Amino acid sequence: MSEFTNINLSLIVLLLPLFGFFIVLFFGKKFPKLYLAEVGIITLAFILSLVIGYSKLSTYLHQDILFSFTWIDFGNVPNLGNLHVDLGIKIDNLTVIMLFVVNLISMLVHIYSIAYMKDDSRYSRYFAYLGIFTFSMLGIVLTDNLLMMYIFWELVGLSSYLLIGFWYEKQSASDAGKKAFLTNRVGDIGMFIGILVLFTNYKSFSFDFIYAQIASGNLPFGSEAWLTAAGILVFLGAVGKSAQFPLHVWLPDAMEGPTPVSALIHAATMVAAGVYLVARIFVMLTADAMLVIAVVGAVTSLFAATIALTQNDIKKVLAYSTVSQLGYMVMALGVGAYTFAFFHLVTHAFFKACLFLGSGSVIHSMHHEQDIREMGGLKKKMPITYYTFLISTLAISGIPLTSGFLSKDGILAGTLAFGQLTGHWLIPIIGFSVAFLTAFYMFRLVILTFHGSPRNHHKYEHAHESPFVMVMPLVVLSTLSIFFWYTPNPISPDASWFTSNWITTPQTVVPKSASFDFMINESVESSSHNSHEEIIHSEKYTHAMHWAHYPAMIMSLIVAGLGILLAFTMYQWKKISPDKIADSVKALYKGSLNKWYVDEIYAKSFIGGTIKLGDILSWFDKWIIDGIVNGSAYVTKVFSKISGLFDAYVVDGLVNGTALFSGFVGFNFKKLQTGKVQTYIVLVVFSIIVLFFIIGPF
Amino acid sequence: MNGIPILSLITFLPVIGMILILFMPSKMAREIKITSLIITFLQIILAAILLSNFNYSAGGIYEASSFQFVEKFQWIKITGLSWIGTVKVDYFLGADGISLPMLLLTALVSFIAVISSWSINKSVKGFFALFLLLDTGMMGVFVALDFFLFYVFWELMLLPMYFLIGIWGGPRKEYAAIKFFIYTLFGSVFMLLVMIALYFSASETLADGTTVFTFNLLTLMDPTNYTTNGILSPLNPNNYRLAAYIALFVGFAIKIPMFPFHTWLPDAHVEAPTPISVILAGVLLKMGTYGILRISFPIFPEITKDLSYYIALFGVINIIYGALVALAQKDFKKLIAYSSVSHMGYVLLGMASMSTTGITGAIFQMFNHGTITAMLFLIVGVIYDRAHTRDINSFGGLANKMPVYTFFVTIAFFAAIGLPSLSGFISEALVFVGAFGVEEIRVLTMIGTLGILLGAAYMLWTLQRIFFGEFNKKWDDVLTDITFREYAMFIPLTIIIVFLGIYPSAMLDIMNASVNSLVEFLAKNAQGFTLSGM
Q1: Which residues of B fall within a CB distance of 8 Å from A625?
Q2: pLDDT digit string, tens, across residues A638-694
Q3: Distance in Å, alpha carbon of A113 to nearest chain B alpha carbon
Q4: Which of A207, A479, A496, A635 is most open to solvent, judged by the fewest CB atoms within 10 Å of its CB?
Q5: Contacting residues for A619 by C-beta, under 8 A, at least 6 apart
């Protein structure tokens, strides 16, 4: 297939779900079966993405397929020259793998939803929303520039908002949707400013153009500090979208949405977009930026894992586990384990989607019961759900023969190597602790849900295995959690075609002085088109990774095994009472149960503060600003009243007074005007005499 | 377009309509409405003709030759006035890339407002007569290239507005109307003073060789036309240009409205009937920012440059302050009014950048705010017409009761939030791109981006309170989904908002040449005028 065909096909893949959105949204009411068209459209998109993926990975393995066009043309801008904003598509290996993952999971979730959402009054609209989500997500995947990334970034935010609040009659659902959108916007502002920094310097949004500029030594505002800042700012977008600490609060609440949505958007694809974004900007991350990213990821993964330990809502446990795993991926990117971060994104997408859809299957059969304390013993009633759930749990715990083992092991090896190379040992320590916690709480979940005897007999009696359209996706996804799709050697990720052929760490463009020395490959020119991995890295890094490989594998197995063992001891065999442990560390238990009170702190500080400030300013506006306006109007009025009075009594008084005075004078003096000439003469003479007396002395 | 005075036509067509209406008996309410509808529709056709004949590469701004659809002849000439000499005012109309978007907006919003006025039943004749007069005033402001003429149109629009709020308004209509009137008049006084001062500072040479003072804006933009000792002459070392700039700016700022001159706006909006709110927010506010771009910027480029930091500062204050105050509102209409304050802040910020992207963003934001906020006020009108209250908290769960209405509301709200794929995003993004590029206002710009968070906060909160949750049974009978007439108002606006969000070049290309020309002119003259430049 030619590049042109690939571009056209990917445009079709992108626009198909949008088309589905429009027809189902506008005609869904009239034709209630139209949702099937949407399912068909996604299936078609999936098939096309397979075609593109095959074509790309077979014919264009080391070549990116590019396409762009001018969207806005500012012409010849004074002092700048030609300025235009381009949009475009870039198909590289990352893209085609994401296309496959997104379309596959979206298709499975569409199919699953046919049964899961059956009785919903807004059935058609639900599928329309899935359509616009898929469209937006594919946009993120296909873009070759930051602007389009931001555009689709916001659009997935919209579809997430619509789907979290899908049951908007419930206050908690509409709250959660709003919270998700606003929390994401906080991160997006950072991302937007980061994009502004880059655009201001390079007059382009294109990833490749910007990286070429940085590689040639043209740093933003000429400084490495700004390069670091730009990286961290754009990363803030990922902090929001991928629910990293401290913006993780929205994701657990997002479980208010329908469960298939949680699987698709809030576990497998959209939340991974943040990781995808960091992977896209990976080459421009300075050492400082990477360290920040590693720390944020590590803190997130540990923080969320500690919360997941004590949650009793099946979806909440999975939600915190998602946050924790996303932290893992982000941490992996921070430590430079680029390929494994992306690998984990893919494996996690499958097993976490499976877990969520499995939990949906349980919830569906338990009549919307989500509390695991009300479950137990479901293994017998729902065998397919149980075994698929178990396989996915093994995968997320990192047990050999699963995909999770491969990707997790790679990440842990990466953190160990990072610790060895930079001395930041805390990061691998956190990494292994999280592996332990993950294995523990995931098995706690499995045991409490499926093992033992039922704790709520009434609900248990009614439980049943889900229909075919719901279990089929579970089977597909759990199969994808087994190693052979990714590598022939079940214990070594290095042998994987995934990490050695398809995804290789790109060469950094950051100047040497601002980069980790292990990120710089001394012999890049000769190897840039070589298909074997590791050469992109320095010798030093390769050595460190080799050194870390076996210790990481052994330790990860030990901690995972311990976690599982502890879970069985506590919940299956009941040798240790969870309540006793909870009592002995009451403060910690309560902290974990209450999510370390982050929501409460935010509610009191940022949210409460903003609303309070709004109230204060509103008061200020009404009484001070408008007070001045009305006050000056009042003063003017009083002044005019005074002038009115002055006018009436003084000015007019004067006028009238004058009149009165003349009247008075006239009245009194009219006697003089007798009309008799003699009298006048007498007066004249008299006056003259008086005048003589006055003037006389002169 | 040779020979056809199309700008005069589009400007005075409403006056013709007004005269027609005045001759119609007042009981022919329906015919009066239809007449107004036809007149405003013809205006849209004229605007479309303007658009299709528009030369995209002509700059305009300061160059008379690149203005389009120009009409110029002598309007007033009084000779032999002792020390003043000759008073001469030109009837000078023209369009460029800055005015055309505003003309399109005015035509569109007026048409939509007439549809929205269908529910007016109180002295219909008077309402539509005044409405059409207002229309002429607005159009005139956007096409006038003579300061005196501009001023006449500016004042012309004031009077009908006063009556439209004062007679057809809500409970506190007298207060709101007088506040609007006096506030604007207060600003106009400053404008008048500056106008007269400018008049005595520059002169032009007529064909017969005599030199006369002038109100011609293009003449006033050229520093070589100033007399050496005119009080606003840049050549005069003791000039009062800074004071004049501020005075003129205040005159325009009141209209925008810019903090702290904004408090007339919420009152006017809350009391005004829906169509008048639509006009007010959709068009009138833009006259302030348009005036700054058309008059203040090119006539006082060096002072604009000096004060650009403060313009940006006030822009950011508008953005943040407006959003925070909007957050506290319980009255739906007041909330939208404060959101206008916030959104007009973006326009100021974009203009302050004095860059192509920033000014393009500012003008585009003027247009988008016109369509989006018009839609928002129509949305308030729909609910107010039915429930006779605007108390946000008295509603809830309307999404199920009025699904189509909710659909349009969602689009308008998300457009106001600046969601990509809707027009508001492009303009806000361009404003930020432009402003961020200027080092002096970079930090301010970063603070300004908080507006996109706060905007989402008050909009989504409102959406939740009115449309989500449980439906309040009290409204069961009155709240019905939108009617055909309301469809007719929402659909064109929605199409424009979506279309310009996806294909912004349709509008940006119109303004591009003019904006580049303005930016170049500003850059050239911002360093202050020197004699050698003459």
Answers
A1: 259-260, 262-263
A2: 888 888 888 888 888 888 888 888 888 877 777 666 667 777 777 777 787 777 777
A3: 22
A4: A635
A5: none
